[in-house]
Amino acid sequence: MSRSFLSLASLVVLSVTLVACTSHEDPEEASFEDGSPISGTWYLAADRDRFEMKIVASASSGYHGTIRREGEGDIDDLTDFSWDENSQWLEFREEGLGFNRWYRVRIVHGVAAGRFVHQVSPIKPPLAAYTLHVTGWSPTYLDLDDVPRVWRVTLNGNRDATIRIDRDASGV
Question: 150-172, pLDDT tens digit by residue?
Answer without folding.
Answer: 777 788 888 888 887 776 667 65
